Amino acid sequence: MKNFVGNLSLNKYEDYVSVFDALSHPVRIKIIGILAEGRQYVSELARLVNVSRPLLYMHLKKLETARLVKSTMEISENGKAMKFYSLEDFGLEINKDTLSELSKSIVIENPENGS
Amino acid sequence: MKNFVGNLSLNKYEDYVSVFDALSHPVRIKIIGILAEGRQYVSELARLVNVSRPLLYMHLKKLETARLVKSTMEISENGKAMKFYSLEDFGLEINKDTLSELSKSIVIENPENGS
DNA sequence: ATCACGTGTAATATAATTATTACATGTGAT
DNA sequence: ATCACATGTAATAATTATATTACACGTGAT
Fold it and tell me: What's the fold here for domain B4-97?
């Protein structure tokens, strides 16, 4: 298993696209960097990353879709609901060969194009 | 030199973001797959990928910005100007450590946020 | 001179992403 | 009951990305 994310090997090109998409924004890479030090709950993560919570949710959603992060809800000792995010394990090797292999399953549909 | 593209090692996070961005669309991965078999000129590439030429230019621009492809103009024997695109050499290893390292240089600016 | 086949790009439309604002709910402590 | 601090999300605005259409120009062959 060479390329994987969340203990699943990647095979469909859509999986790769969603990973690349997830990694294509500075805020999301920053989130990964912070979670690499350990899990965090949403409000604290928002402060660390320096974005609003609604915006953070949007970015987390993309990371979760790509399965680069996962979340769990917990109730702290003081009774507050807290949602923790943590990094999934992942490793990708990107080169001519891996992308070439991927592209074989891609078919671009009939755009009625000319020119 | 672990992560590189076009014989240059990647270091700024913006370089990575533009590579991820370039790889986040099926058409662009398809383009890479086709160029992996050998160079192609623009019009033929458009037919192979099955998109219009103006659209192809847009996608090629992103790939070129990320330095995953390069182009050269030539005059064919029959006198026609032809623009050839070919793949740059590149190899990236993406995991918790490489992204974590990257994220250190990312600072998210003052969004005046609350909540 | 018209056609087939290259080149390039400007203007526009459509769609998706990113960001903001304004809410609502619940708990424990003052 | 009000505050501080968690949760969540709907509605909107602003910005980018994607896609289309319509041009223009050049060469060689019919």
Answer: Arc Repressor Mutant, subunit A (1.10.10)
